[in-house]
Specification:
binds adenosine-5'-triphosphate; binds magnesium ion
């Protein structure tokens, strides 16, 4: 590489001149040092691209200089070629153990010097290029993380500010619906639909604000001992009509008598609501949903499963569905469900993890149903 900086270290000036002479035609820049301490000082000052290092010198030996440079994070990537009159195998071995990249025997062969220097400089330039790229990617990554933070903060602010106008809108719609005697049937239906949409939007805002809080670690859990089977039964009751609409049977199996666990009831109930809502949505009419809950004494945790016999999930989605706004697109389903925003499972993951638990999904593939499982620590 023309223009590369080469440091030649040798206590004898004639040896330095010889190496410079051999490499003269390659357009390198040279600097020199006649002992180990001066060499180390110079390396830190000029950051050479390659070092030709004599072994036998008064004071610090070449081996020691090499060892020190290779142990230093700032200088370890500079290629070092040991140049020595010592031919014995153990000296070659010591040079390699000290971290040297190559070895030249004195008297040096000029072709060999040129070839080795060239090839090490080429490797060094690849290394520098990779390091530069890595630094550039790391800087871009930091910038992206910063932008992501700003975006999240902004989104949080906007979502938060939507609450008040939405509450006002719902209030006016409710007010208008009080006067049903003076409204036509289709006007009543329009107002009712609008109100329902307001409620959906309000739920979505609630989820987004909770997700934001949990992501920031700002969600204070309101922990209290609760019978998990009660929470499950209440959730099933909440979805009874929706399931009945599609003739979907929901079964619940308690695998233990005592399913008491310390939880934030409101949060865990929403986890069940999200999982049940999904299971009903993705199970065809006449299907079934089996819920089971029991303790795992070995892991001191409660295990809960919500298994449906619906569409199921392809393996590449098993992790991704827990990301915010991630929804599965299937060839036989043109779009997403109305009112679905891809937040439910992200909410479940954060809520379960806030309890110190874990959530995951198992599915044998499309058409084979999905089994959402989570565990909650009992202590
Ligand atoms: N039981 C299930 N069977 C098959 N696919 C499922 C099941 N539950 C979730 N999914 C897939 O995972 C995606 C993400 O689910 P998630 O609950 O996060 O969002 P959503 O249901 O689309 O919207 P939201 O819950 O915000 O109303 C869904 O869009 C769906 O494709
Ligand atoms: Mg959902």
């Amino acid at each position: 590489m023309a223009g590369s900086k080469i440091l030649i270290v040798d206590d004898e000036i004639k040896n330095i001149k010889l190496l410079k002479g051999i490499l003269f035609s390659e357009n390198y820049t040279f600097c020199e040092a006649q002992n180990g301490d001066a060499a180390i000082e110079l390396v830190h000052k000029i950051n050479p691209d390659l070092i030709l290092l004599d072994v036998m010198m008064p004071g610090l030996s070449g081996f020691e200089v090499c060892r020190q440079l290779k142990q230093n994070g700032k200088t370890k990537s500079i290629p070092i070629v040991m140049v020595t009159a010592l031919r014995e195998k153990e000296h070659r071995l010591e040079a390699m153990q000290a971290g040297a990249d190559d070895f030249l025997s004195k008297p040096v062969d000029s072709t060999e010097v040129v070839v080795r220097v060239k090839s090490l400089l080429r490797i060094k330039s690849y290394h520098d290029e990779i390091s530069d790229n890595y630094r550039e990617i790391a800087a871009k990554n930091d910038k992206l993380l910063e932008l992501e933070k700003i975006k999240d903060g902004l989104m949080h602010m906007i979502v938060h500010d939507l609450r008040n106008p939405l509450a006002a809108l719902s209030g006016y719609l409710e007010l208008a619906l009080l006067d049903q005697d003076n409204l036509l049937q289709n006007q009543i239906e329009c107002l009712q639909n609008s109100l329902e949409s307001c409620h959906e939007l309000n739920d979505m805002i609630g989820s987004l604000l909770d997700i934001y809080k949990m992501e920031q670690g700002q969600m204070q859990l309101d922990l209290e001992p609760a019978a998990l089977d009660r929470v499950v039964v209440e959730s099933i009751e909440q979805f009874q009509f929706k399931a009945a609409d599609k003739q979907i049977a929901i079964n619940f199996e308690r695998r233990d008598r005592d399913l008491t666990v310390s939880i934030d009831r409101k949060l865990v109930k929403r986890v069940f609501a999200n999982l049940l809502n999904n299971a009903i949505r993705h199970t065809p009419a006449g299907g079934k949903i089996d819920i089971s809950a029991g303790s795992d004494p070995a892991n001191e945790s409660l295990h809960i499963e919500i298994r449906d016999n619906g569409h199921g999930l392809a393996p590449e989605y098993h992790q991704r569905v827990f990301d915010k706004f991630e929804q599965v697109k299937l060839a036989n389903r043109s779009g997403h469900a109305i009112g679905a925003s891809g937040l439910g499972l992200a909410y479940c993951k954060l809520a379960v993890e806030a309890h110190g638990g874990k959530i995951w999904v198992e599915s044998d593939g499309i058409g084979k149903g999905a089994n959402f499982k989570f565990c909650l620590p009992m202590k």
